[in-house]
Amino acid sequence: MSNNRDILYQVLQYVMAVTDGKFADLSVTTLAYSFNIDRFKLSRQCKRRLGMTLQDFLFKEKMTRAAFLLKGQGDMTVKEVSERIGFCTCDYFIRKFKGYYGVAPGRYKELKTTSTAIHAGNQPEA
To answer: Can you give the residue ranges of every domain in the chain?
Structure first.
């Protein structure tokens, strides 16, 4: 039988491997159930080892994935990104994204698209 340290490692590996479409279904409760561990124990271990609760880790991963989708998937709308990573409403996603990154997702997408174009060689020659 694996020890709790191994279980936390397995949970984190699982979270990182889950596709964006399935990420919306993840919660501390579902993860604890899937790995047969008490959700409070799992969160405490996560807090002790990572310095954040599992809920915070999941939120951070959601924001990271949202940012990646916004800058990497130019054809996805903010609403599509919010639905794909599991926010119940687009407005709630916009508020959370802005609180996390300091800029609204639409503006973030514009900035990243412009930044990518500039860094891709569209700078004036010296």
So the answer is: 4-119
pLDDT of the residue at 111? 81
The two three-digit tokens of residue 82, written as one number: 């919010």
CATH of domain 4-119: 1.10.10.60
CA torsion sign for 48, 39, 68, 63 is negative
CA 73/CA 113 separation, integer angstroms: 10
- 3-7, 66-70, 93-97, 98-102, range with the lowest pLDDT: 3-7
Cα dist from 17 to 87, 102, 112, 121, whole Å: 19, 27, 25, 33
Inform me whether the pLDDT recorded for 14 exceeds 60: yes
Cα angle 63-53-95, degrees, rounded to a multiple of 5:
35
Q: Report helix, strand or coil for 76.
A: coil
Residue type, 97: F
Radius of gyration of the chain measured on its C-alpha atoms? 18
* Separation CA 116–CA 119 (nearest Å): 5
Side-chain-side CA neighbours of 46 within 13 Å: the count stands at 24
